[in-house]
Amino acid sequence: MRFKAFTLAEVLITLSIIGIVAAMTLPALIQKKQDKELISMTRKVYADINSAFLLSQQDYGVLGDNSFLFSATDDNVTVAKNLAKYFNGAKVCEKPSQKGCSQYYYELSYATKRYGSDDTTITSTSNRPKIILNNGAIISVQSNQSGCEAKEYTDTNYDENGRPIKNPDGSVSTHTYLSSTCGNLIFDVNGNKQPNQFGRDAYGFWVRRNKIEPSADYLGGNSLKNILTGKDKLEYTSYTKGQKFEF
Is pTM, for the whole model, over 0.85? Predict the structure, then answer.
């Protein structure tokens, strides 16, 4: 009686195919799982931030008004210290050189490819004070020092890729505008752990007099809007530091 069996070559070929398929699909599955975890963390940290603002309004006796927390006379460090009071167990790092604080200052990748002065898509918040939450999340603080009043600003004109628009004479095109934004904050839900990319674990948002809201898409605005509306879809572009793009 004869028995049919696979040859060693056939077994090896089958295992090779399985290995190739696994190598192609496993990274995507791991990233999908990681993104799901980051979405959950983002929702929690954003809720904590909202609660902190509400507590500060109650403390100042001005419900619905963030101007007292973002006073025109207070610098970034003062605002960070005042806001940190409303997070249980939080500490403030005023600058990278402060003892034990250097680890909280690192580079962040934009959510989308964006033209920069060196054609990269990496930014840093090393000039901002940081609030370190007890769950590991980090909040970078930037105040407009306007007291949330309308203030005139001058900004560069950019094209759809974030490239500065030039005037016919070669100078950079600018425009002036009025804004009543109190300031802008950036939070990273898992601190200096990877991926350190806007739209995945880091987000920027504007502080208005009566609310906080997601900022520009390259600072993770689209992803944050999706999360807050229950869509739970992250919008970002994966790339490496220094990678060049065609614009």
Answer: no
